[in-house]
Amino acid sequence: MLNFLVRKILYGFLVMLGVTVIVFFLFQGFGDPARLILGQTGDAETLKNIRKELYLDQPKGKQFLYYLRDISPVSIHTEAEIREKQLKGFFIGGNRKLAIKIPYLRRSYQSKREVLDVLTDALPGTLVLAGAAMIFATIAGILLGILAAVKKGTWWDSAAIFSSVVGISAPSFFMGILIAWLFGFAWSTWTGLHMTGSMFETDAFTGRRIELQNLILPAFTLGIRPLAIIAQLTRSSMLDVLGQD
């Protein structure tokens, strides 16, 4: 049991290290982040200052070590770095401290905001959307799978299988465009839905309010693929049960 846990932990560590290496070299190994920030019209002096601020003037190997130190929950930082990066956690030592901290994800190249703040702002909406999509996919998928199994050999079964195949095969970006155009534009008069909208709307008189109708089309689009998989699994399991004594 202990050997199994050690192997799994080692395997997970190697996977995380591999992903970290790939992400680092995708964003900093190819191209120039300083040029991305400043654009093609930036002067040489400003580019030099940005590269120095982001450690881009260092060799790639050293840049990668700095990157690992920032995102690692356990690392060593100087007092000045802790203040400059506003690191949060426990720090032990003198000028160079052993830090047990929240990983520092640096700043966005485009917005200059802390990456952790950007993720935190987007997380609630993402969780709501993912939860709504999975609830829709689970309920609709189970019902569709049961119907296909009970009506095996009929047009209901054929339609359910065809819909599942289309749901798994069709690219999500294409289905999103098609669904938004049909239900949010062409049939908007009957559906009451729109192609654009936010989960929260702010009114000068009523304040901030949630707009659940704007969640329908994104959740439906995101739930199509898991719906198709759940429907096929439910149909297969249902047929096995119906074939028993």
How many beta-strand segments?
A: 5
> Widest sheet: strand order?
1-3-2
Gyration radius over CA? 26 Å
Helix fraction, binned, reads 55-70%
Distance between the termini: 40 Å
Shape: extended
**Which quaternary structure do these chains form?**
single chain
What percent of residues are in strands?
5-15%
User: What does the average pLDDT come to?
Assistant: 85
Q: Number of domains in the coordinates?
A: 3
Tally of individual helices: 10
List the SSEs and their pairings:
Layout: H1 2-29, H2 33-38, H3 44-53, H4 60-71, E1 74-78, H5 79-85, E2 89-93, E3 96-101, H6 115-150, H7 155-169, H8 172-186, H9 188-191, E4 200-203, E5 207-210, H10 213-242
Antiparallel strand pairs: 1-3, 2-3, 4-5
Q: Any overview of this molecule?
A:
- This protein is mainly alpha-helical and 245 residues long.
- The chain has 3 domains: 19-68, no CATH class; 72-107, no CATH class; 115-242.
- Helices cover 67% and strands 10% of the residues.
- The strands form 2 sheets. A 3-stranded antiparallel sheet has the order 1-3-2. A two-stranded antiparallel ribbon has the order 4-5.
Structure in a nutshell:
It is built from ten helices and five strands; from the N terminus they run H-H-H-H-E-H-E-E-H-H-H-H-E-E-H.
